[in-house]
Amino acid sequence: MNKTFISRKLLLIALLAAGVSCNENKQAEKKPEWVSLFNGKDMNDWIVKIHHHEVGENFGNTFRVEDSVIKVRYDQYGDFNDQFGHLYYKEPFSHYHLKFEYRFVGKWYPSAPEYTLLNSGVMFHSQDPRTMPKEQDWPISVEMQLLAGLGDGNARPTGNMCSPGTNVVYKGKLDPQHCIESSSKTYEGEQWVRGELIVLGDSLITHIINGDTVLQYSKPQIGGGVVTNYDPAIKIDGKLLSKGFIALQSEGQPVDFRKIEILNLEK
């Protein structure tokens, strides 16, 4: 075997090794991709749970898809009867960036509680809806509360934090408030607003409205009040919430949701 043949063989091995290494680096550098949670056509990937009803029963056609939008409506209700509802994506998430658009439309349902006027939300780190008894009113979860201005000239920020059956650490201490107000401006009328959540397990959580960071807190955990008729085996106060389900809320105000996308940050 001559030296030229050996040199060519070594060169080929080196090139193959370099190619493998380059390919591995490209795979390692491949960025995660945004995934649509809502296909614009149906709610087959979503689970309904409405207070006073069994999981899976979409009472009054509360949640419906029209024109590539998830619409929340109450036109088939009688008395509202605290029939608070949530539409859950089918699987839980832990570390992620969620973005969506929402707008308030139409008239508030008059027999709903007054605080629900121009009020909705996106729940996250929620318990599995299949663990909720029929008479449980709210899921144990954290809420990105969505509000609109009342047209009275008073500030009414959106992207707030509310905590049904949970607590969070805010400004360095466990905060007992049910809701913590964000720094967002007030949005009036039926305009589309873009909301974003950056959730890092049981660590830092960031709320973003129309590109502006409006609230940050950390260590979401089970605790606090508001939720009733829950299964005691689920509500373990003090347990950190590192993952859970994402849900869209219905509580008396017609609202639309669209462009619901997630970027999984677990890896």
Structural overview:
The chain has 267 residues and is mainly beta. The protein has 2 domains: 1-30; 33-264, Exo-inulinase, domain 1 (Jelly Rolls), CATH 2.60.120.560. The protein is built from 1 helix and 17 strands. Strands 1, 3, 4, 6, 10, 11, 13, 14, 15 and 17 form a 10-stranded antiparallel β-sheet that branches. The protein has a 7-stranded antiparallel β-sheet with strand order 2-5-16-7-8-9-12, with no helix packed on it. 36% of the residues are buried. The model is unreliable at 10-15 (pLDDT under 50).
Question: What's the layout of helices and strands?
Answer:
Layout: H1 3-29, E1 34-36, E2 46-50, E3 63-66, E4 69-72, E5 85-89, E6 95-104, E7 119-126, E8 142-147, E9 160-162, E10 166-170, E11 173-175, E12 179-180, E13 193-200, E14 204-209, E15 212-222, E16 245-250, E17 255-264
Antiparallel strand pairs: 1-17, 2-5, 3-4, 4-17, 5-16, 6-13, 6-17, 7-8, 7-16, 8-9, 9-12, 10-11, 10-15, 13-14, 14-15
Number of separate structural domains: 2
Q: Estimate the strand proportion.
A: 35-45%
Q: State the distance separating the first and last CA atoms.
A: 49 Å
The fold-level CATH name of the largest domain is Jelly Rolls
